[in-house]
Design a protein that fits this description.
InterPro entries: DNA_helicase_UvrD/REP, P-loop_NTPase, UvrD-like_ATP-bd, UvrD-like_helicase_C. The chain is of the alpha/beta class. It contains 32 helices and 25 strands. The protein has a seven-stranded parallel sheet. It has a six-stranded mixed sheet with strand order 3-4-2-1-5-6, with helices on one face. Bound molecules: adenosine-5'-triphosphate.
C-alpha cells in the first residue's frame, strides 16, 4: 500500500478524532454544569437533572469506548460515493449533517460486512483500516470483482480475510474482545435480525455464537435505543467466570444498560454458592418440580385434625376443621397467590371467631350463616350491635393467640422459607413428593437438613434452586403487609437522609437571625417527599433487583444448558418474548439440558421460534477440529461439525504417562507450552494462555502439584483469574472460554463422569485456538483413537 494512501487515510482519521475530542469536551462540560446545579426546586427538576446527568455520562462512556479503532473501514461505492465505517456515527454539522463516519450498526454500514465479489451490493472496494492509538498503521483493500467470486464452491467467501486472520491468530488475553471490524456475513444476518420473537442460533464450537449474541445486543440497543434503554437487556451466561470473560465486550462497544447474570443469580437477593450432586440438580430442573412446589404451597394451607383452642379474653374459643376448611375453600377460590389469598382466609376465620364470641355473650347476629356469607344478620336477636362485633373482630385480629393459630394454618411465606422448610422437613417433603409423583429415591435426593432454620440463610442455595425459588415466588405472591412495612421503612430512611441534608445546610448558620434558613422553608419530611419519586439507580441496577422486571430483550448464551425450570424463570423475565437464544445441542453437559431445541423450547414457546445456524468455526484450527469431529460423531452421527476457517499445520497429540508422574509431567508440559507461546507471541499481556482441563474428580489432586510447579497457575476456585498464563479448570468451568493451548487430562474419566461425558469431552477438545495435547494414564476413549503420539519434544519433557 502506497504511503500516499496511508497518509490520506491518516488525515481523514485525524479529522475524525478531532471531532471526537470536541464531542467529549462538550459532553463533559455539560455534565459538569448539570452536576453543579443547585439541588432543590421542583421534584421534576431533580428528575430532569438526574436524567440529563445520566445521558451525558452515557455519551462520555460511548466516546471513550470509541477511542480505540474509531474508524476501521471504508467503502468505495459505484458512482464515487465513499463511506467510512467505525464505532460511532459522526456527522458534519456545517454540511447538512453529511455522514463523516457511519456507526457499524447503521444500515448504511451493512455492505461493509455483506458485500462479496459475487454480490457486491454496489461496493467497488472494501478497505480495512488498522490503527494503533490514533495512527493508521495498515490498510488492506479488497476489490470486489465478479471474476474473483467463489462461484460454485458453495462457501460464502470471508469478508476482510487478512484482518480476520490477524484477529484469529492473535494471542488470547483472558478477556473476550469485540469483532466489529471483522463480522462475517452469516453472523451479520443474525446480529441484525428483527427484534420481535424468539431467535434460536445453533452453531458448533467457535462459530462466534457468544460474539454474535453480544453484538446483537449492541445492535438492538442502537436501533431501538429508547425502548431498550428503558427496559434493559438481560444476558444470561453459564457461570460467573464466563460472565467475567465476556463482561468487557459491551462496554467496549459503548453499551452499558445490560444486565449480565447466571441462572443461579437471577433471583434477586439469592446467590447460588452451594453445589450439589448432578442427579439432584437434574431432578430440580424437571417439570415435576412445578407440581412439587404447588403441592408444597397447598400443604401449608392447613386444616387442624382437632379443633384448636384459642384463649381470648377470659374465654376459650374453638376453631374447628369445618370452619377452617370453609375459610380455606373461600381463600383458594379467589385464585390469588398464597400470601394475598391469606387475607381472605384470615377474614373468614376472624369472622367465625367473632360470631362465636358474640354468641357466647348472648347475641347471635349470624345464626344461620356460619361464615357470614350474607350481609344481613341471621335470625338471632342482635343484642350486640354491628359496631361491637366489629370491635371484637379488631381485637381478634391483634390477639397473639389468634395470630399464632393463623400462622399455623396459613402462614405468610417467602420463597426461601417455603423451600428451606420443604427440603428440611421429612413430612412436608414426603407429602409434596407424593403429589408430584417422585419416587422415594428422588425424594431423598431433595432432602437437605437445614441447620440454620432456613429463614436467614440466603447463601444456602444452588443454581438449580433459583428457578424453584422463582416458581415459589409466583405461587406465593407478595406479602402485602410486608411490602407496606418495607415502603414505610424506605420512607423513614429518606426522611433521615433529608434531615441530614437540612442539618448540613443549616450548620454554622443558626446564630444569625437574619439569614433565611433551609429549615425555615422546608422540613425534612417534605424534602424527603420531594425526592420520593426519583430513583437514582440505573435501569440495569433496578432491573437486577426486581424479580418482576420485564426486560426489553433477553439473550441466553449456552442456552442448551438450561433446564425446564430455568426456562420458566427466563420466560417470566421477558413477557414480550423478544429473545435471542444461542447454543449448541452437541455441547450440552447439564443432565437437565437440551438435546433438541424443539423438545426443550416446545413447552414454553410451542413452535413460535425461528432457527438460524452458524457453520464456520473461527476458533479451532482444522487439525484439532478433525479430532473433535470423531467425538461429535460418537455423540450423534447425524451432527455436523462446523467448518474450520484456518489450519495451523500442527497436529494435536497424545501422551501416555505413568500414574505417579501425571502431575509432574503435566506441570512440565504446561510450562513448555507457556514458553512456546511466549516465544511466538511475546511477553506482553497478549502472551497467550494455557488451559489444563481435568475431570472434576482429579482437580483436587492435580491442583496443588500444578500450583507448586507453576506459581503463575490459577485454579478454578470461585473466581479463577483468566489473566494468568495457566488455568486449571474442569470442563464445566471452561464452557464458552478459549485458550491458545489446551491440555486435556484423562479423557476417559471425563467421559465416565457424566452420562453426557462425550459432550463434555467435545467441549474440552474445542477450547484451543492453536494447539491441543491429551495426557492420560488409562486407555483413550475409542473416539480419540486417531490422535497421534506426542512429538519427540513432549516425550522428552515427559521423561
Ligand atoms: N467474525 C469474527 N471476527 C473475529 N473473530 C471472531 C469472529 N467470529 C468469531 N470470532 C472469534 O472466534 C472465537 C470464538 O467465538 P465465540 O466464543 O463467540 O464462539 P462460540 O460459538 O460461542 O463458541 P463455543 O460454543 O465453543 O463457546 C472468539 O475468539 C471470537 O472472538
Amino acid at each position: 500500500m502506497s504511503n500516499e494512501e496511508v497518509e490520506h487515510e491518516q488525515e481523514y482519521v485525524s479529522m475524525l478524532y478531532e471531532r471526537l475530542d470536541g464531542f467529549r469536551e462538550q459532553a463533559s462540560t455539560r455534565l459538569a454544569e448539570v452536576l453543579a446545579e443547585r439541588p432543590g426546586g421542583r421534584p421534576q427538576a431533580h428528575t430532569e437533572r438526574q436524567a440529563a446527568a445520566s445521558t451525558y455520562s452515557r455519551q462520555l462512556a460511548r466516546y471513550d469506548a470509541a477511542e480505540d479503532g474509531l474508524c476501521f473501514g471504508r467503502l468505495d461505492l459505484d458512482g464515487d460515493e465513499t463511506r467510512y465505517v467505525g464505532r460511532l456515527g459522526i456527522f458534519d454539522e456545517s454540511d447538512d449533517y453529511a455522514p463523516l463516519l457511519i456507526d457499524w450498526r447503521a444500515p448504511a454500514a451493512r455492505p461493509f460486512y455483506l458485500a462479496t465479489a459475487a454480490s457486491p451490493e454496489g461496493v467497488r472496494r472494501r478497505r480495512q483500516i488498522r490503527t494503533a492509538r490514533r495512527r493508521v498503521v495498515e490498510i488492506d483493500d479488497e476489490v470486489l470483482e465478479l471474476a474473483d467470486a467463489n462461484v460454485g464452491t458453495g462457501h460464502e467467501s470471508l469478508t476482510g480475510e487478512a484482518r480476520l486472520m490477524a484477529a484469529l491468530t492473535a494471542g488470547r488475553t483472558g478477556r473476550m474482545g469485540d469483532i466489529v471490524e471483522t463480522i462475517q456475513a452469516e453472523q451479520d444476518r443474525i446480529i441484525r435480525a428483527e427484534n420481535a420473537g424468539v431467535l434460536v442460533v445453533q452453531g458448533g464450537p467457535g462459530t462466534g455464537k457468544t460474539a454474535v449474541a453480544l453484538h446483537r445486543a449492541a445492535y438492538l440497543l442502537y436501533t431501538y435505543r429508547e425502548q431498550l434503554t428503558k427496559r434493559g437487556v438481560l444476558v444470561i451466561g453459564p457461570n460467573p467466570t464466563f460472565l467475567r470473560y465476556i463482561s468487557h465486550v459491551l462496554p467496549a462497544l459503548g453499551e452499558t444498560s445490560v444486565v449480565l447474570s447466571t441462572v443461579g443469580d437471577l433471583f434477586p437477593g439469592v446467590y447460588a454458592t452451594r453445589t450439589e450432586p448432578r442427579e439432584t440438580a437434574e431432578l430440580k430442573g424437571g417439570p415435576r418440580m412445578v407440581e412439587l412446589i404447588t403441592a408444597a404451597v397447598r400443604d401449608r394451607q392447613r386444616v387442624p385434625d382437632e379443633p384448636l383452642e384459642i384463649a381470648f379474653e377470659d374465654d376459650i374459643l374453638l376453631l374447628d376443621a369445618a370452619t377452617c376448611e370453609a375459610a380455606r375453600d373461600r381463600a383458594r377460590a379467589t385464585h390469588r397467590p398464597h400470601n394475598q389469598a391469606r387475607v381472605v382466609f384470615v377474614q373468614a376465620v376472624v369472622d367465625a371467631l367473632a360470631r362465636q364470641y358474640a354468641d357466647r355473650l348472648g347475641a347471635d347476629p349470624y345464626a344461620d350463616d356460619p361464615l357470614g356469607e350474607d350481609d344481613a344478620p341471621g335470625g338471632g336477636s342482635n343484642l350486640l350491635g354491628d359496631e361491637v362485633v366489629d370491635d371484637i373482630r379488631q381485637e381478634l385480629r391483634q390477639d397473639e393467640a389468634v395470630l399464632t393459630a393463623l400462622d399455623e394454618l396459613w402462614p405468610v411465606l417467602t420463597p426461601q422459607w417455603l423451600l428451606a422448610d420443604l427440603f428440611a422437613d421429612a413430612e412436608l417433603l414426603a407429602s409434596a413428593a407424593e403429589a408430584a409423583g417422585l419416587t422415594d429415591a428422588e425424594r431423598d435426593l431433595l432432602s437437605r437438613p437445614d441447620p440454620h432454620g432456613g429463614r436467614a440463610a440466603d447463601r444456602m442455595w444452588t443454581s438449580a434452586d433459583a428457578p424453584l425459588l422463582d416458581e415459589a415466588a409466583e405461587l406465593l405472591g407478595d406479602d402485602e403487609a410486608a411490602a407496606l412495612a418495607a415502603a414505610e421503612r424506605r420512607r423513614r430512611e429518606r426522611i433521615a437522609y433529608a434531615q441530614g441534608v437540612v442539618d448540613i445546610l443549616t450548620r454554622d448558620m443558626d446564630d444569625d437571625p437574619d439569614i433565611l434558613m433551609v429549615s425555615d422553608l422546608i422540613d425534612a419530611e417534605r424534602l424527603a417527599e420531594r425526592h420520593e419519586d426519583s430513583d437514582d439507580r440505573s435501569t440495569a441496577e433496578r432491573a437486577a433487583a426486581d424479580r418482576t422486571w420485564a426486560f426489553g430483550h433477553v439473550i441466553v448464551d449456552e442456552a442448551q444448558e438450561l433446564s425446564h425450570m430455568a426456562w420458566r424463570m427466563v420466560m417470566r423475565r421477558c413477557p414480550s418474548r423478544s429473545m435471542t437464544l444461542v447454543g449448541d445441542v452437541a455441547q450440552t453437559g447439564d443432565l437437565a439440558g437440551a438435546s433438541s431445541w424443539a423438545r426443550v423450547l416446545g413447552p414454553h414457546l410451542g413452535d413460535r421460534w425461528r432457527l438460524e445456524r452458524l457453520t464456520v468455526n473461527y476458533r479451532t484450527p482444522a487439525e484439532i477440529m478433525a479430532v473433535a469431529a470423531e467425538v461429535l460423531a460418537a455423540i450423534d452421527p447425524g451432527l455436523e461439525p462446523p467448518r474450520s476457517v484456518r489450519e495451523t499445520g500442527t497436529a494435536p497429540w497424545e501422551l501416555t504417562v505413568a500414574p505417579d508422574t501425571l502431575a509432574s509431567q503435566l506441570a512440565a508440559i504446561a510450562a513448555s507450552e507457556v514458553a512456546e507461546l511466549r516465544e511466538a507471541l511475546g511477553d506482553g499481556p497478549d502472551g497467550g494462555r494455557v488451559a489444563v482441563l481435568v475431570p472434576s474428580g482429579l482437580l483436587g489432586d492435580l491442583r496443588p502439584a500444578l500450583e507448586a510447579a507453576l506459581p503463575a497457575t490459577t485454579t478454578a476456585g470461585d473466581e479463577p483469574d483468566l489473566d494468568s498464563p495457566v488455568a486449571i479448570l474442569t470442563v464445566r468451568q471452561s464452557k464458552g472460554l478459549e485458550f491458545d493451548a489446551v491440555l486435556v487430562v484423562e479423557p476417559d474419566l471425563i467421559v465416565e463422569e457424566s452420562p453426557r461425558g462425550l459432550n463434555d469431552l467435545y467441549v474440552a477438545l474445542t477450547r484451543a485456538t492453536r494447539s491441543l495435547a491429551v495426557l492420560h494414564t488409562s486407555p483413550l476413549p475409542a473416539a480419540l483413537g486417531k490422535l497421534e503420539p506426542g512429538p519427540a519434544v513432549a516425550q522428552a519433557v515427559a521423561r
